[in-house]
Amino acid sequence: MTTATTMFSSGLAPALKRYVDLKRALGQRFKPQTRTLESLDRFLQNHVTKYPVLNAAAFLAWCQTREHVASGWRRVQMQQVYNFCLYRRRTEPHCFVPDPALFPKLHQRLQPYIFSEQEVAKLLRTALGLKRVPSSPFRPEVIRLAIVLLFTTGIRCGELLRLTLGDYNRRDATLLIRETKFYKSRLLALNGDIAEEVERYLHARAQRGLPVSSDTALIGNALKDGRAYWGTSLGRCLEPMLRQCAILTPKGRLPRIHDFRRLCPECPIAVVQGGCRPRGQAPLAGHLYGPRFHCVHSLLLAVD
After folding, report:
1. What percent of the chain lies above the pLDDT cut of 90?
2. Is 1.10.443.10 the CATH classification of the domain at 117-301?
3. What is the DSSP letter of 151?
């Protein structure tokens, strides 16, 4: 994996460079963390007279330059600097390490919305009635497939939108999930009903003369030879569908795309080898097949 060279210029530059190089050597992209450390490095370089070393006063002054970001993200950035300071303390036992107790409090996580089979069936019916436009002449089929894959496989929105036609293995009925959250790829086994959905979609693409090369986005439009949807554009397609189907959370907000991958712990298809995943979490990614899809077939029949 190639990464751009990171330049540091403050007195901490050698330690910062070693730290970033170590993380990248371990296979991490480390992009957000590197940007945070670059911000700290610039601050120390610009205020070298007042803060010749990283101490409590310098850290507090740098934190004040981050007041424009939300407290949750500010906490993340402070934690990133804290992790660097812990690394630095291995070789410099007396160096400064910030106190995590002074960081902003953690936000309460949003309660995920659990979609029922009936609600997904409504959305699939609604998807078939979406308007076709020149930039997306295949919108009903694309959105239908996106909902099916998000709901039945537990993949993330970003993983879905990075899929290409070449990632689908027709012989083995698998999807290659690339560039995951933890920078690893995996094979996702598809149930026969879901594989049929993908096959039906590919057949319809070929009939309409749309691009079918291996590097064409699976969830794409007609722009630039099949450019992939963005998360925001997919969300704009789903939001009016959710309103039309009257699918709202108990607090009256629209569910997020990420909520499609959440399953009720009591649901049969949430059972995986050791039992159910608690608190509505998604099942073990990439291992929903066979009897765990016993309710999916009836779901699809409900909209055909």
Report:
1. 39
2. yes
3. H
